[in-house]
Description:
globular
Amino acid sequence: QLQASGGGLVQVGGSLRLSCAASGRTFSSYIMAWFRQAPGKEREFVAGKRWSGGSASYADSVKGRFTISKDNTKNTLYLQMNSLKPEDTAVYYCAAGYRLTYGMMRYPGEYDNWGQGTQVTVSS
C-alpha cells in the first residue's frame, strides 16, 4: 500500500516535498516512481529509483529541479521539488513496479501499485 502526501499551493519558484509511505510488503525488487497528471493530459513519468539502491532517472522537464530519494528506516519515498513552475501543476502519484532486470520503467502500465495522488498547484 502506498500513501502519498505533501502536496499544496505554492508560488512560482517555490519548493515542496512530497512523501509516499509504503507498507504491506517488501519493495526490495521494486522500482519506486513518481508520476503526475495534469487536467486533460496523460499521466507522465516524473522520477524513479530502485528501492534497493542505485541511480535515479528523471523526466527531462524536471531534471535539475526535482530529486527523488528514500528513507529505508521509514519505508518512505520522497520527491523534493524546487524551482517550481506553473507547468508542474498536476496531481502527483507515487507508484511501485516489480522489476528484476536492469532499467527504468517509464510507463504507467508497468506499475501495479499506486498511491492515491496529491495535488500540487503552482501559482504565478
